[in-house]
């Protein structure tokens, strides 16, 4: 399922190595009776818990905000509200509270620093997250917890050698937090089987400990991995298990919508599921998925409508760079210079193979095919297994007459057609 990274989750780390697309695309996986009960807008358990947390600590906080012990939990309440509503204002409120807590705390600065770093990661402010974590790490801090977050940030910034050194330092095959990160590392290397193996071990730990939040996280992430591996029924099963624990989990519902759309080609049902999510959760990327389904249905009116709603949502809210990747893709065709500007900004923010592939796309569409080839050959080729990066590489190779490099990428991408969706799969077939 194509999606955007907002917080550290394995959901956004995609590999296409050894993916096997199910041949029987007409088989029915989703069944309305399995999940209709979760589509009711009255299911707001996670939201209500977050709201309760925010209200409780807000009442406790002194009027002059000097109650440092209350600032952290209150910020946590706002972060939870962001996760359950998609309202970025809650993330901004959490940031202000975390900064205040760091400023006035005498003993827990590193704890508040990690919380602020997580907020920065959510906003794609990775360099800022790295800076405050490294500074905290030098001083009196919980070294292990900070090392785990440094791994996350180094991965986001493409500093893979540093990430691996941290991973080796925290190695513990019985530790949940280590296992989800070694899973992420193996996905980055293109070893999807190993990534799933470690994620399954983490899931078993979450289940044995009975921690609801860890189980929700584990189930929704492993559902993604199973989908990448072509195990659509297993993916569906774990999205349902996620919803059984947290009926208003927007991410799991979007996962169901993706199965209905990409695997079953049932855009009517996929839109019905998304509509139920969008009542309470306001992430702009839902409009992108609706726009993609409209394109699949050759519905130009709905395509333009949802693209406009996406752009309007970004203009009305301060999302920082959270949606730059989507904007680069959006502007590449009709406003390549704008796409190029954003792509350069994105590479400066996080110099990864994926962001360089976006830069190459923008360079190609702006008429600079030789520069695009240079970006691919120097910064992307052999450095990522992410399908979109491989697709952009194929476009650049084709434009530069390197057909011998296009063929293997095309074959690999066709095996990831479920993950990429039917619109892109059709374009890949034409490479």
What would you note in describing this structure?
This protein is mainly α and 431 residues long. Among the domains are: 171-231, no CATH class; 323-431, Alpha Horseshoe (Serine Threonine Protein Phosphatase 5, Tetratricopeptide repeat). 72% of the residues lie in helices and 0% in strands. The chain contains 24 helices and no strands. The longest helix is centred in the first third of the chain and has 18 residues, at 68-85. The two termini are 22 Å apart. The model is unreliable at 2-25 (pLDDT under 50).
Secondary-structure class: mainly alpha
**What fraction strand?**
under 5%
Radius of gyration: 21 Å
Mean pLDDT: 92
* Overall geometric form: globular
| Regions with little confidence, pLDDT below 50 for 5+ residues | 2-25
For this structure, what is the CATH homologous superfamily of the domain at 323-431? Tetratricopeptide repeat domain
> What are the secondary-structure elements, in order, as H or E?
HHHHHHHHHHHHHHHHHHHHHHHH
CATH topology of the domain at 323-431: Serine Threonine Protein Phosphatase 5, Tetratricopeptide repeat
Task: Indicate the CATH class of the domain at 323-431.
Answer: Mainly Alpha
Give the helix tally: 24
What is the rounded distance between the termini?
22 Å
What is the architecture of the domain at 323-431 at the second tier of CATH? Answer: Alpha Horseshoe
């Amino acid at each position: 399922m194509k999606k955007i990274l907002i917080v550290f989750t394995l959901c956004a780390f995609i590999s296409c190595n050894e993916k096997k697309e199910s041949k029987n695309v007409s088989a029915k996986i989703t069944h309305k009776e399995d999940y209709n009960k979760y589509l009711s807008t009255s299911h707001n358990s996670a939201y209500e818990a977050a709201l309760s947390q925010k209200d409780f600590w807000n009442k406790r906080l002194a009027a002059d905000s000097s109650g440092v012990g209350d600032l952290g939990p209150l910020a946590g309440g706002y972060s939870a509200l962001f996760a359950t509503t998609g309202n970025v204002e809650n993330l901004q409120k959490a940031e202000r509270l975390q900064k205040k807590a760091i400023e006035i705390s005498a003993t827990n600065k590193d704890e508040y620093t990690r919380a602020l770093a997580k907020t920065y990661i959510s906003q794609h402010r990775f360099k800022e997250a790295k800076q405050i974590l490294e500074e905290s790490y030098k001083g009196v801090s919980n070294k292990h917890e900070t090392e785990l977050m440094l791994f996350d940030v180094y991965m986001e910034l493409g500093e893979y050698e540093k990430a691996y050194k941290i991973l080796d330092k925290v190695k513990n095959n019985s530790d949940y937090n280590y296992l989800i990160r070694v899973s992420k590392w193996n996905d980055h290397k293109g070893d999807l089987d190993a990534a799933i193996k470690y994620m399954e071990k983490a899931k078993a730990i979450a289940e044995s400990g009975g921690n609801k939040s860890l189980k929700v996280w584990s189930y929704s992430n492993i559902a993604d991995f199973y989908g990448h591996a072509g195990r659509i029924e297993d993916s569906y099963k774990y999205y349902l298990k996620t919803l059984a624990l947290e009926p208003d989990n927007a991410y799991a519902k979007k996962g169901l919508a993706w199965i209905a759309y990409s695997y079953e080609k049932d855009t009517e049902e996929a839109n019905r599921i998304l509509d139920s999510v969008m009542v309470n959760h306001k992430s702009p990327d839902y409009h992108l998925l609706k726009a993609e389904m409209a394109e699949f249905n050759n519905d130009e009116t709905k395509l333009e409508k949802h693209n406009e709603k996406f752009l309007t949502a970004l203009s009305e809210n301060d999302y920082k760079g959270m949606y730059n990747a989507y904007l680069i893709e959006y502007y590449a065709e009709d406003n390549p210079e704008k796409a190029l500007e954003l792509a350069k900004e994105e590479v400066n923010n996080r110099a990864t193979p994926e962001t360089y592939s976006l830069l190459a796309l923008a360079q190609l569409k702006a008429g600079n095919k030789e520069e695009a080839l240079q970006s691919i050959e120097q910064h992307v080729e052999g450095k990522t297994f992410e399908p979109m990066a491989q697709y952009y590489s194929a476009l650049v190779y084709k434009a530069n007459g390197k057909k011998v490099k296009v063929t293997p990428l095309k074959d690999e991408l066709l095996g990831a057609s479920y993950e990429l969706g039917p619109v892109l799969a059709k374009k890949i077939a034409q490479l």
